């Protein structure tokens, strides 16, 4: 049973590869999530992709993993508060690349907001109980 439970240490950070694929495969969709007040939305899309890759590598190999989990939790909370919550309230929804039903879009953004809060909680839990490298975040 422990061997199965130990898979979670790798399964959780590797699941973020889905977001890497989304940022790489559909950069215009990722760029649409960048708030209007930030310039160069494609830069932020690809910068996020690189940060995700750095997080995954760090978490899987166990080097600076506690720092990586903590920074990723902060990033996810900021995304929830600065991107998904305003969009759930009807701000900055770009319907060029999204669905035309803004009510449905707002509902999906609220789901994204709650999902990000749950992921942030899991990331903080991993930082506290799974991560081993405490060089920066003791």
Q: What level of helicity do the residues show?
A: over 70%
Q: Helices and strands, in N-to-C order?
A: HHHHHHH
**Structural class given helices, strands, pairing?**
mainly alpha
Give the averaged pLDDT, no decimals: 91
Radius of gyration: 16 Å
Number of helices: 7
Please state roughly what percent of the residues sit in beta strands, choosing from under 5%, 5-15%, 15-25%, 25-35%, 35-45% or over 45%: under 5%
The tally of beta strands, per DSSP, is 0
Distance from first to last alpha carbon: 30 Å
Unreliable parts: none
What overall geometry do the principal axes of the alpha carbons give? globular
**Major beta sheet summary:** none
SSE layout and pairings?
Layout lengths: L1 H5 L1 H7 L2 H9 L1 H6 L8 H21 L3 H24 L13 H28 L9
3D structure, described in words:
The protein is mostly helical and 138 residues long. It is globular. The chain starts with a helix and ends in a 9-residue tail after the last helix.
Would you summarize the structure shown here?
This protein is an all-alpha fold and 138 residues long. It is 72% helix and 0% strand.
Core attributes:
globular; about 140 residues; about 0% strand; single chain; mainly alpha
């Amino acid at each position: 049973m422990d061997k199965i439970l130990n898979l979670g240490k790798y399964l959780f950070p590797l699941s973020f590869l889905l977001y890497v694929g989304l940022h790489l495969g559909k950069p215009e969709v990722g760029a649409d999530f960048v708030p209007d007040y930030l310039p160069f939305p494609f830069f932020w899309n690809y910068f996020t992709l690189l940060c995700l890759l750095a997080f995954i590598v760090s978490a899987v190999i166990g080097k600076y993993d506690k720092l990586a989990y903590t920074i990723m939790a902060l990033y996810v909370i900021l995304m929830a508060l600065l991107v998904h919550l305003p969009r759930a309230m009807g701000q900055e929804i770009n319907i060029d690349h999204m669905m035309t039903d803004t009510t449905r879009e707002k509902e999906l953004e609220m789901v994204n907001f709650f999902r990000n809060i749950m992921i942030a909680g899991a990331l903080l839990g991993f930082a506290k109980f799974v991560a081993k490298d405490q060089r920066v975040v003791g």
